[in-house]
Amino acid sequence: MSEPLTFPSSFLWGAATSAYQIEGAVREDGRTPSIWDTFCRTPGKVLGGDTGDIAVDHYHRYRDDVALMADLGLTAYRFSVSWPRVQPTGRGPAVQRGLDFYRRLVDELLAHGIKPAVTLYHWDLPQELEDAGGWPERETAYRFAEYAAIVGEALGDRVEQWITLNEPWCSAFLGYGSGVHAPGRTDHAAALGAAHHLNLAHGLGTSALRSVMPARNSVAVSLNPSMLRAVSDAPEDLDAKRRIDNLANGIFHGPMLHGAYPETLFTDTASVTDWSFVQQGDLGAIHQPLDALGLNYYSPTLVSAAENAPSGPRADGHGISDHSPWPAADDVAFHQTPGDRTEMGWTVDPTGLHELIMRYTNEAPGLPIYITENGAAYDDKPDPDGRVHDPERIAYLHGHLSAVRQAISDGADVRGYYLWSLMDNFEWAYGYEKRFGAVYVDYATLARTPKSSARWYGDVARTGALPSEGAGGGA
């Protein structure tokens, strides 16, 4: 039997969630609707007509949930703040009752020795800001900066790790391009404008946080870069890969890490927009020094030129829609990558995570990396004794954590890993159909039951070592 793989003693072992997916309490303590509250009430948008109205009621059960994290041995917890809970219209002063929830949550985490990591924006834009135009409008970036300062001032004395945006690609291209996410718009020009203004929000928000917080605090962003592969080395397939790389990756890491968009992005999308929404000084505002980079990874993406590609709705891992999320890329085809698949239909491929880490180690030399999301959905069910065994998830985690450890051996400065997700929860347009949690939630009673993967992951967190393949944990 091979020796366990050990991680650095300072490595953070965490789990991640987001506000709309777990909190519930959507009408309590001054919270007003977000774009997801509205989207969920639009017929046909969310599977089963599900909503996050109750979700898993974390708003009222957070103390028990933190105790569960501590019992599992987690050393870090990444959660998001609900913008409409803190600043209901997206403008003006904070609602202290909303901030107080996050103050209590942070205090509870610290009391249990768990390091909090705050994500400011995980997709729940206040509906009033969407009514005023949403992310395609420049004003939304300025509103985000004000919101960032409010939260930073309230929590910055106790929270050291901060993330401005989670997966801005999804906000821009699923929200405004394909329409499979809130607010459900299908306008490629708006999607590109949204991407730029999310970049601007990140830069302005980073500056706002630093203006109100201790200098020791870390500011990062969580991107979900596509780990792209071309079907062949044919020039047209490599060009398809390049174009999607611009739209998936360069559009965000270009300005954030390097202060410039890829030049070919402008020519590739000239038929959609003239990019006149990029104003003088924007790239400087966006290009703020970062203290860390968050990477979210689930599965690689395989592309080619569209010759002989099947027609009909596109299934490219982001939901099925008659509208593509990819502006000016109708002649690019997306293919199912080979291998075992999760309940989302996503291929299990840890090599993609290793490649992604190494790419960004080269893209941003010296910048510490955190894996801020990684995990899998499986059809988990309790056995007759009420235990939930999920060996597929244990195998998934083992493979991906092995990939992280290999990247560290190869010179990457990876500081921590956040499992997605702590608990089963509201999975956006899939409603409650897909279970990503290490903890099983009975949606009828909201009872929490750690799955065998939660115990396995807890053992890894406590020991800082990855057991040899096949060694599992009990429920």
TrEMBL record:
PROSITE patterns linked to this entry: GLYCOSYL_HYDROL_F1_1, GLYCOSYL_HYDROL_F1_2
Catalytic activities: Hydrolysis of terminal, non-reducing beta-D-glucosyl residues with release of beta-D-glucose
Entry GO MF terms: beta-glucosidase activity
EC annotation from Swiss-Prot or TrEMBL: 3.2.1.21
Gene Ontology CC: cytosol
Cleaved signal peptide residues: none
Residues binding substrate, per UniProt: Q21, H122, N166, Y298, W420, E427, W428
Chain positions covered by the region annotation Disordered: 308-346
A Pfam family hit: Glyco_hydro_1
UniProt-listed GO biological process terms: cellulose catabolic process
Transmembrane segments: none
Residues annotated as catalytic: E167, E373
PANTHER family assigned to the protein according to its UniProt record, in alphabetical order: GLYCOSYL HYDROLASE, LP05116P
Family from the record: Belongs to the glycosyl hydrolase 1 family.
Name assigned to this protein: Beta-glucosidase
